[in-house]
Design brief:
- With 238 residues, the protein is an alpha/beta fold.
- It has one domain: Rossmann fold, CATH 3.40.50.
- 37% of the residues lie in helices and 27% in strands.
- The protein contains ten helices and ten strands.
- The protein has a six-stranded mixed sheet with strand order 6-7-8-3-9-10, with helices on both faces.
- α7 links the parallel β7 and β8.
- The radius of gyration is 17 Å and the shape is globular.
- It starts with 5 loop residues before the first strand and ends with a helix.
């Protein structure tokens, strides 16, 4: 237990959109090297949690610590500079730009894209090398997912925040996508993954949290959660 080093710690977060109270007293932690999943159904506040962590939405109450710094009042670029990278909902690539151009954008915060970073991404996703000059908007869903993850890796992030990597992908690609996530995890990349596909997410995660209408209602080791009776009934379809 003592070797655990918190990388991200959000405490007592309350987030509103106007007068609508979305996140309620949310506490969540990701340790160095850990893969944590945040599970929950539609509209429960999963993306809002990621946006709050990234500083795209300001919480009314609460504190966000990242890499040893209090980032609660820092803007998004400052948090990205400190090492947050996002793989947004629906990938959000720059469709009229090539694969290579999309990847280079990921390195923007560090200045010029280094050749060795590109090589690392290409090693992880050889397909992207073959298709480096193809327009991102013409890639298949699975390929777009690779670009989105590759783009995040280009910034040398300390933490990757992923919003529903399985969304819109055929079952086989969902499996591949989670294999890739497990592979990154085994290389020591810290990740927070938001998912509705609880089965898949829990199969690769170390720990998980369950969000229900803006509140964390359950948390624990992924193995424990996968066997949790209530969660199985609510989210795992068994
Ligand atoms: N900019 C906004 N202004 C007002 N309400 C918003 C805004 N963004 C999100 N909401 C509302 O906040 C609630 C939570 O949204 P959020 O996107 O966090 O859900 P989610 O858990 O990511 O859902 P999904 O699984 O469908 O992506 C929803 O009811 C949504 O309509
Ligand atoms: Mg969402």
């Amino acid at each position: 237990m003592s070797e655990k080093k918190p990388l991200l710690e959000i405490s007592n977060i309350d987030t509103y959109y106007g007068v609508i109270h979305i996140l309620q007293q949310v506490n969540l932690r990701v340790d160095e090297g850990e893969l944590v999943c945040l599970l929950g159904g539609n509209a429960c506040g999963k993306s809002t949690t990621l946006k709050t962590i990234l500083g795209m939405v300001k919480p009314k109450v609460g504190k966000i610590m990242f890499a040893g710094e209090d980032v609660t009042h820092q803007n998004t670029p400052a948090r990205v500079k400190l090492g947050m990278a996002v793989v947004p909902e629906n990938r959000r690539l720059f469709a009229p730009m090539t694969v290579l151009e999309n990847l280079k954008i990921g390195a923007y915060v560090r200045g010029e894209a280094a050749e060795e970073d590109l090589e690392r991404v290409y090693e992880l996703f050889p397909k992207l090398k073959e298709r480096s000059s193809q327009l991102a908007g013409t890639l298949s869903g699975g390929e777009q997912q690779m670009v989105a993850v590759g783009r995040a890796l280009m910034s040398h992030p300390r933490l990757i925040l992923m919003d529903e990597p399985s969304m819109g992908l055929a079952p086989k690609l969902v499996e591949q996508s989670f294999e890739m996530i497990a592979n990154l995890h085994s290389q020591g990349v810290s990740m927070l993954i938001v998912e509705q596909n609880a089965n898949m997410a829990l199969s690769v995660a170390d720990r998980g949290y369950v969000l229900q209408t803006g509140r964390i209602v359950l948390e624990g080791e992924a193995k424990e959660l996968a066997g949790h009776e209530e969660l199985r009934r609510a989210y795992l379809g068994r």
